[in-house]
Amino acid sequence: MNFLRLFLVTTLLSSLLVNCGAYLNQPVAKQSARTGELTTTSTLLKNLPKPSEPIVVGVYNFRDQTGQYKNIETGSSFSTAVPQGGTTILNKALEDSGWFTVVERENLGNLLNERNIINTTREQYRQAGDNTQKQLPPLLFAGVLLEGGIVSYDSNILTGGAGARYFGVGGSTQYRQDRITVYLRAVSTTNGKVLKTVYISKTILSQAVSLGLFKYVNFQRLLEVETGFTTNEPIQLALTDAIEKAVESMIIEGIQANLWNTKQGKKLDEELINSYNSIKQEQEARLLYQGEQVQGKHKNEIALSGGVNLFYGDLQQKKFGYAFQVAYARKLSQRLAVELNFAPFEIRTGKKYTNQKYSIDTNLRIDLLPKQKTSTYIYLGTGVIGDYFLLHNKQTKDDKFYWKLQYGAGLNYSFNSRFAVFGFAQQNFALTDNLEAVKQGKFKDYYFNFGLGLKYYF
To answer: How far is CA 104 from the centre of its chain?
Structure first.
């Protein structure tokens, strides 16, 4: 009991200190203003190679197109779920990249009014005889417009948690994941052609961890201790990260489309494109919940596995024997497959009983996550059990075939489209009570197989 309690407390403390930075830096005093925090993409954006010539761009509006308000547990809220300063964030990202000369377009009316005031004032001075006053130079025009916006804010796309309590000591952890999505496109002002469009999404994580102790330490003496913290990833930083990633993608995909190029030349351009495409392919191979996809084009597979057998019969002692399997499977659809297995195994039970048998099984398999690199599957089928000595034509009076039913589940990890490793657990119900040569009671014999193996797809 003491060991279990110690293990529980250690586990909960570990969970509490995973984000010890937040826990150990709790705000207990006023803090002065500081410069804004950098995101994971900020440094990458600032360290990009310089362009051969900066591109003059204008951003009229990069707005929230979701129209979504904050979710609250009770009542309604008139606060928007997404910050409304998307244009400002985008202009800052464009400036930080060093690739663009940004011209003011969001508040163009204010700029034009101010220029009119300046020109009117100078004209009055010229009429008064001051010949030093000149007209303002023309405004810089943009060759490319950047359009788009925040198109989606999805709340609670993934929630969960865990908790435990033992003899008054316990704790819990909860998490919630939201998701923000932005689109950014470059439009030529010469002919209105959309030159390039990029799409970026960013998850937003919220976590809560708590630990408590509620225990009587003596008669009418109650000890109660609670601690914990909650962290919520700022939406503004998540939006900034997504927009900066969109700017980075726009730059490199523009290089790939020959819209612009780096100052260093073609060799560096190709290095940037290859590195970007490698990361992009890896990210595109992941599903919404971070499951990595694998391209399963092959219909056939061969599997070899080895493991142990645990037999449950009429003798009391249970021992592990060996178990091997050679299998062939054919896919009927993306999720369904049929299997044919040959499985030699050893029964070990009682004090000295040992016997070698084999089974020939047919299964119907369902792949629960067929596109993911790490996937699970379940199967159900029937088969026959034979004595190993029948394979060597050594007939005995006990050599018989028995029917059986089996079901199981497994975990599959694919290295690539050809090879995978897997582990499985299978329960087999023999339609006989005589597998270990002892027949008593009213229950049939059954056994478990546990194994690891290698698959080859073709």
So the answer is: 38
